[in-house]
Specification:
The chain is 52% helix and 13% strand. The protein is of the alpha/beta class and 263 residues long. It has a single domain (41-262), classed as Rossmann fold (3-Layer(aba) Sandwich), CATH 3.40.50.
């Protein structure tokens, strides 16, 4: 009887020990399973950016031939902890107006780039203003620019709509225009008013779209202390492009747009 009791007691201890070990082991597995995986934001992101527009996107006036503001902006973006690389595809063509940009948006290579982009940066408007100058150089009137603004406004809206149709989520940044005519037409006092009105039209249009905004640069080029223009007195020089890049990164960070892009 005593022997049977000892055998039974030993068996209970063995079974209890196995149960205890299994529960501890299972608990460890359970704890390992519930540990949160690092969020996607933990890993630096590779950004794909489309630069689309006129000679400012092409980088005319940049003596380093690195793409104007793009090389400076790339460096600034990649200095952010959350960004590993910022790759730009440059679709800048000198002389382009809103009419040209609308036509070029039918290009399959450009469409494909926009579809896979995190952001699209647009420079346009300066050549639209220049068209008014060229067509009416001997009889310039403020009313001519006001009239031209209406067509510009409609075409700009169509440009944004097309880009949005290719990519619903890409961040769209429209760089405003500046007054390059100070050296050419310093006697036309209405020129600054024209540039300001043109930028106001751009702001009104782009503000109607989600994930889209205007980057103002007009004030940068009113700085008379240091030359920001290339030798043609129209395009930015290296310093001018660097300041444009700094304004873009400031716009992205101060308005928390960069956070949206890297999410």
């Amino acid at each position: 009887m005593k022997r049977i009791f000892l055998l039974t007691f030993s068996l209970i201890l063995i079974l209890s020990g196995c149960s205890f070990s299994d529960s501890v082991f299972s608990g460890k597995l359970l704890n390992e399973q519930v540990k949160p995986f690092p969020p996607e934001s933990f890993f630096p992101k590779d950004l794909s950016i489309v630069a689309f527009g006129d000679s400012l996107t092409k980088g005319v006036g940049d003596t380093t031939n690195q793409g104007g503001y793009i090389s400076y902006l790339k460096t600034l973006l990649e200095s952010q902890e959350e960004i590993r690389t910022a790759e730009f595809q440059n679709f800048g063509v000198s002389g382009n107006t809103t009419k040209d940009l609308l036509n070029r948006l039918n290009n399959e290579e450009l469409q494909s780039a926009i579809q896979s982009s995190d952001a699209v940066i647009i420079t346009v408007g300066g050549n639209d203003v220049m068209e008014v100058f060229k067509s009416n150089i001997l009889n310039l009137k403020l009313s001519m620019f006001v009239s031209a603004q209406e067509g510009y406004s409609q075409r700009l809206r169509e440009i944004i709509e097309k880009i949005r149709s290719y990519n619903q989520n890409t961040q769209i940044l429209l760089v405003g225009i500046y007054n390059p005519f100070l050296g050419w037409f310093s006697d036309i006092h209405e020129m600054q008013e024209i540039v300001t009105r043109w930028n106001k039209t751009s702001l009104d249009i782009i503000s109607t779209f989600d994930h889209a905004s205007l980057v103002p640069i007009e004030d940068i080029f009113l700085n008379q202390e240091e030359s920001l223009f290339h030798t043609d007195y129209f395009h930015p020089n290296n310093l001018g492009y660097e300041l444009i890049a700094e304004r873009i990164i400031s716009h992205l960070t101060e308005n928390e747009i960069l956070d949206e892009i890297i999410e």
